[in-house]
Structure to design on (1004 residues):
């Protein structure tokens, strides 16, 4: 774990994006934040993103659709997606859309770090 | 010899025989028989002896030529001439005879006319009155004369040990064919009688001195060249001499050939008749004057199975039905005694042991001379007829009994004019009349019926034979002088006699006035009810106890655009949204079975095919005995309400989502700060501030806030029926421990004791069950301000279930509120209400969650005594 992974946070709420950026960088991850879900693929490719944290309810767009699209696109299909939502019971829906894992908002810091690490580990394996 | 009994009085032969017996004593007198030419045809031995004359001197001689003084007396010739001419006897003609030897004697002569076939004779008998100056007083000779004169009998006298013919009258000569017999022995005179028993009988009479009478004895005699067969009645009467020894035999014979032949013929034809009788299809009987059966034909024996011995005398009584026996026997005996025709109907046992009804009829039988000889009669099986008659009689009897006893008003009218033959108390009461109406016609008895349809109905029933059933018919009757209306269910039933003809009408009536009146009331109130139902802005239906629809109000018809028939045929269940249809069916069926009220929200399709939300409610209307009479159901449209609810739900969802976003941020920063404080290179001045406990408090409050927000979201989920469970197998004991641990972490004031009496795993949504447990424990904490002890217990429950209970010593809940606390937004009212925070949805959610796990939730609590909340779930099967 020398080199920390690069994480893309897709959330239309800037407050969440900023908070996650601060939090994750404190833990040593590189963080890219976007409020525009349609930019996701491009950023993943350009920034060589290791993990996408995707909000389920982005204004105007359904996060699960974005997730499904990422899975179907060859350039992004290898990147694991950790979906998050204020709807604490949305886990099944997200996993069906191809998400590697799901975390309900608001999250416990320890839970978040554990999930990120586990998703990244499973991708490497 | 003949079987006929001796001495049947009244017959000719016996009469003659009796006279003959009297005659014998007189036969000591001399007797002569003279024909019209005064020629002596016969003389008896007394004559010869008395007058000392030989046969040659007397027989075939004119009496006037007899050489003896006195015979030519003109007086005697005159008398004899008169006898012949006038057929009249003479008596006591005294004549003095003088023998050639000069001896004189005076005799009294009797002359008797004796007709015999074509010839006639005079028999002269001589009674000695005076001889040689001596007077004699011999018995009167009248009897003999009389007998000889009147009896058409053959008489002869046999004398001496060898039975020499001493005397025989003309008839006797005829019998034996006018042969020479006088002076001959019987055997010499009638040799052909040898071997026919007569000689032996003569010997017998001679030996014993006892007379012998024979009846209808056959005898063969040679008459001329022919052998003549005859039947005779005869008497052999012994004649005694002075010493009392049998000196001769008086023979008296009557030829009964003709009679016997006729009788034989009769007997033969009687036998033939019997044969005929035996073959007629009836039982024939003949009794004697004592009433004893002397004859029964074959049919009797065949029918009863009796044999001759059993049927003898009064044997027939033994096969008579015990109940009828006295009656039958007495009837017969009375008739027999009175010698009058007899008829009786009774039961006799046939050969298969069954009793059958018979008519027994008899007529008395008299002989030609008017003597009662018994009865002759017949027995005819009338069982079928009698049985029918019996049935008719029984049914009539039953009817009468029923009518009189019945509480149902009943009357019987007889004849076309409807005469009231019978009306029981109940009917009289209905009519408002008394028993005086009996025997009157219906028109006379109830004149108020004029103008009402009943007379015509009765006439129709009487003429057609079709029963009329009246249902709730109105009848106006005059009761206590006032015309009063009543309603009746009644029948006019034709009554038929045995041959099927209508002879009357049975009228039964039930007063249903009360019923009809209340029906009218019900009808009126039903009209009101329908009006209300039709005016209501709600769909109203009415079903019977089994759930079959009997009514849809106007609103239903308007909503669906269907007619009552269409809706009834289709059933409004078909209009329920597929998502709710099955749940509806299950729950409605449960209500139909239990009678419990029904309530459910469901979507129903309108006339345009759109589904709109309705609140369906149904309640059972019960009979007095608690059984369900019908259901009344309402379906109220709650579409707008639902839409409002949906908007509310969406709003809640949005609110919770929007609230969570800043909470997430806040929480993130708090946790970041806490992480930073844990780092080693933290500024010591910061370390001296109470930053860490403050941040931890913030974090705890955020957790609470998060839970409240989540509950709001859950509520909308449940209302939309979208609560999803993520079930997994986990250990309930571990969940309890973790949850209690978490709560202990933030709450140090209460002592939470955990008891694991039972360890198991369950298949459930772990987070949701944890949520329920948190709710229970936080409630326990919240409502136990003064008591610190809380007990969480995991126990084994029956039927493979586990119970988790949380008990506190807090303020408790009144019994009446036990159900309310599980309702959403419900919070226990009272002064302290404001002191307890919360939305009032925690227990509602807990109940919903547990129920969605097919579990149950319970509460035990008393005001001021703490509460015990418990949920029960199934234990997961071991792998």
């Amino acid at each position: 774990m020398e080199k920390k992974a690069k994480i893309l946070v897709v959330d239309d709420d800037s407050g969440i994006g900023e908070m996650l950026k601060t939090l994750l960088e404190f833990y040593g991850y590189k963080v890219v934040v976007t409020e525009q879900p349609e930019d996701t693929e491009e950023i993943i490719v350009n920034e060589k993103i290791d993990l996408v944290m995707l909000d389920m309810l982005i204004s105007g767009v359904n996060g699960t659709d974005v997730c499904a699209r990422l899975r179907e696109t060859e350039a992004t299909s290898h990147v694991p997606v950790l979906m998050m939502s204020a709807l604490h019971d949305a886990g099944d829906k997200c996993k069906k859309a191809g998400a590697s894992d799901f975390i309900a908002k608001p999250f416990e810091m320890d839970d978040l770090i554990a999930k990120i690490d586990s998703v990244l580990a499973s991708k490497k394996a | 010899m003949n079987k006929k009994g001796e001495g049947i009085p009244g017959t000719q032969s016996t009469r003659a025989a009796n006279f003959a017996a009297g005659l014998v004593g007189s036969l000591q007198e001399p007797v002569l028989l003279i024909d019209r030419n005064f020629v002596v045809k016969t003389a008896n031995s007394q004559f010869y002896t008395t007058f000392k004359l030989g046969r040659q001197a007397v027989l075939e001689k004119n009496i006037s030529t007899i050489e003896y003084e006195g015979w030519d007396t003109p007086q005697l010739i005159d008398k004899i001439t008169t006898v012949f001419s006038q057929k009249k006897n003479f008596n006591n003609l005294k004549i003095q005879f003088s023998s050639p030897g000069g001896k004189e004697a005076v005799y009294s002569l009797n002359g008797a006319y004796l007709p015999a076939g074509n010839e006639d004779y005079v028999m002269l008998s001589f009674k000695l009155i005076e001889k040689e100056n001596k007077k004699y007083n011999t018995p009167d000779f009248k009897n003999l004369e009389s007998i000889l004169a009147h009896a058409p009998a053959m008489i002869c006298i046999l004398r001496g040990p060898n039975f020499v013919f001493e005397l025989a009258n003309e008839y006797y000569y005829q019998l034996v064919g006018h042969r020479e017999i006088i002076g001959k022995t019987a055997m010499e005179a009638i040799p052909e009688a040898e071997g026919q028993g007569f000689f032996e009988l003569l010997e017998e009479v001679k030996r014993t001195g006892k007379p012998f009478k024979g009846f209808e004895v056959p005898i063969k005699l040679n008459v001329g060249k022919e052998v003549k067969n005859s039947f005779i009645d005869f008497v052999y009467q012994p004649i005694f001499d002075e010493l009392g020894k049998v000196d001769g035999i008086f023979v008296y014979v009557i030829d009964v050939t003709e009679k016997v032949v006729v009788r034989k013929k009769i007997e033969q034809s009687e036998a033939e008749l019997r044969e005929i009788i035996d073959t007629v299809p009836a039982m024939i009987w003949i009794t004697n004057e004592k009433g004893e059966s002397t004859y029964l034909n074959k049919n009797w024996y065949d029918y009863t199975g009796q044999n001759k011995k059993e049927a003898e005398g009064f044997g027939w009584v033994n096969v008579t039905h015990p109940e009828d026996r006295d009656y039958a026997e007495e009837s017969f005996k009375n008739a027999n005694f009175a010698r009058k025709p007899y008829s009786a109907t009774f039961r006799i046992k046939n050969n298969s042991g069954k009793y059958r009804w018979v008519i027994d009829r008899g007529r008395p039988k008299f002989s030609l001379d008017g003597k009662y000889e018994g009865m002759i009669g017949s027995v005819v099986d009338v069982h079928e007829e009698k049985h029918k008659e019996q049935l008719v009689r029984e049914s009539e009897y039953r009817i009468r009994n029923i009518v009189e006893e019945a509480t149902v008003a009943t009357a019987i009218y007889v004849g076309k004019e409807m005469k009231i033959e019978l009306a029981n108390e109940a009917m009289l009461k209905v009519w408002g009349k008394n028993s005086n109406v009996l025997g009157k016609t219906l028109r006379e008895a109830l004149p108020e019926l004029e103008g009402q349809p009943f007379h015509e109905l009765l006439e129709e029933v009487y003429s057609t034979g079709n029963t009329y059933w009246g249902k709730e018919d109105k009848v106006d009757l005059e009761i206590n002088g006032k015309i009063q209306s009543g309603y009746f269910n009644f029948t006019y039933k034709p009554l038929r006699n045995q041959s099927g003809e209508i002879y009357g009408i049975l009228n039964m009536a039930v007063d249903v006035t009360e019923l009809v009146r209340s029906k009218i009331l019900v009808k009126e109130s039903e009209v009101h009810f329908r009006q209300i139902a039709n005016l209501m802005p709600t769909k109203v239906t009415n079903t019977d106890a089994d759930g079959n629809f009997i009514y849809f109000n106007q609103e239903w018809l308007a909503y669906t655009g269907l007619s009552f028939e269409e809706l009834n045929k289709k059933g409004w269940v078909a209009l329920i949204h597929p998502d709710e249809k099955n749940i509806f069916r299950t729950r409605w069926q449960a209500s139909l079975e239990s009678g419990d009220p029904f309530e459910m929200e469901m979507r129903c399709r309108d006339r345009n095919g759109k589904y709109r939300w309705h609140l369906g409610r149904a309640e059972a209307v019960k009979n007095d005995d608690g059984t369900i009479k019908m259901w009344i159901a309402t379906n109220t449209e709650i579409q707008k309400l639902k839409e409002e609810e949906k908007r509310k739900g969406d709003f809640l969802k949005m609110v919770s989502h929007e609230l969570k976003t800043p909470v997430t941020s806040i929480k993130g920063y708090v946790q970041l700060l806490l992480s930073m404080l844990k780092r080693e290179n933290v500024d010591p001045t910061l370390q001296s501030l109470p930053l860490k406990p403050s941040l931890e408090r913030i974090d705890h409050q955020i957790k609470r806030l998060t839970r409240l927000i989540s509950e709001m979201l859950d509520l909308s989920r449940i209302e939309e029926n979208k609560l999803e469970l993520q079930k997994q197998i986990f250990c309930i004991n571990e969940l309890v421990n973790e949850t209690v641990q978490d709560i202990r972490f933030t709450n140090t004031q209460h002592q939470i004791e955990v008891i694991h009496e039972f360890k198991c795993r369950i298949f459930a949504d772990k987070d949701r069950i944890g949520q329920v447990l948190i709710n229970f424990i936080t409630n326990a904490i919240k409502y136990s301000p003064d008591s610190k002890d809380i007990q969480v217990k995991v126990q084994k429950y029956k039927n493979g279930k586990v119970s988790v209970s949380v008990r506190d010593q807090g303020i408790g809940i009144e019994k009446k509120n036990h159900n309310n606390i599980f309702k959403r937004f419900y919070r226990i009212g009272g002064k302290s209400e404001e002191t307890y925070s919360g939305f009032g949805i925690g227990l509602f959610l807990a109940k919903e969650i547990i129920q969605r796990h097919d579990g149950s939730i319970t509460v035990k609590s008393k005001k001021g005594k703490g509460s015990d909340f418990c949920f029960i779930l199934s234990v997961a099967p071991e792998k």
Notes: Residues 536-637 of chain B form a domain with the Beta-Lactamase fold (CATH 3.30.450.20). Chain B touches chain A at residues 653, 656-657, 660-669, 671-672, 674-676, 702, 706, 710, 713, 717, 723-724, 726, 767 (CB under 8 Å). The CA atoms of residues 647 and 653 of chain B lie 10 Å apart. The longest helix of chain B spans residues 639-678.
